[in-house]
Amino acid sequence: MRAIRAATTALLGAAALALAAPAALAADGAPATDPRVARAKAPGDFVVSPSIVAPGGRLTLSAPGCASTATATAGIFDTATIAPGATVTATVDADAKRGAVYTVLFNCTGGVQDTVALTISGAPTATPTISATILAPPRGVRGGLGGSMAPSTTELAAGGALVLAAACGTAYVVRRRRSGAARRH
C-alpha cells in the first residue's frame, strides 16, 4: 500500500515539474521566440549612433534585426563587417563635408538591405561625439534576468495553480495516511 502512495506522490510531483518546466525555460535560458531587440521593428532594422558626428569622429554601427553577418558601407568610412548581435566602431574620414548628410547602407548576408542617414556636424570637435541614444549591449552569456523582471499574469496564475495542486496532493496523502493508521489500531 505504501508503494502505491509513494508512486502517486512521485507522479504528482513529476506532473507539477513538467507543467512548470516550459515557463521556467522560457523565462531563464531558452532563446526568445524573437531574437531581435525590443526596438527592432523589422528584420532590416539597423542602428548608427550617434546620428550626427563631426569629421574624424567615431560612430557605432549595429544590426540588431539581422540574424546573420551584416556589412555597413558609406563613402566616409571603411566598410565595416558586423557579426550577429555585435556592434562595430568606425571612424569617419577627416575630410567628410561638414553639414552633409551621407547614406549608410547596411546589407545582411541573407539579402536584407536598409539605409540610415548620417549627418556630419558643422562644428569641429576634439573628441568623438557622444549620443544620447542607448544601444542594446552586445549579447553575451545568457545568464537569465536575475529577478529583474516581474512575472506576467499568466506565470503568476500557473505558479498559483501548481502550489494549490501540490497543497491538495499533500493534504490528500496525509489524510489517507492518517485514516489508514487509525484503521490498524
Written description of the protein model:
- This protein has 185 residues and is an alpha+beta fold.
- The protein has two helices and eight strands; from the N terminus they run αββββββββα.
- The strands form two sheets. It has a five-stranded mixed beta sheet with strand order 2-8-7-4-5, with no helix packed on it. The protein has a three-stranded antiparallel beta sheet with strand order 1-3-6, with no helix packed on it.
- The protein is rod-shaped, with a radius of gyration of 28 Å.
In short:
The chain contains two helices and eight strands, in the order αββββββββα. The chain is of the alpha+beta class.
User: Termini separation (Å)?
Assistant: 17 Å
The averaged pLDDT comes out at 74
* Widest beta sheet: strand line-up: 2-8-7-4-5
Strand content: 15-25%
Total helical elements: 2
Please estimate the helix content.
25-40%
Outline type: rod-shaped
The biggest sheet, with number of strands, parallel, antiparallel or mixed sense and barrel status, is: 5 strands, mixed
Which regions contain 5 or more consecutive residues with pLDDT less than 50?
23-41
Rg is 28 Å
Given helix and strand content, the structural type is: alpha+beta
How many β-strand runs? Answer: 8
The ordered H/E elements are: HEEEEEEEEH
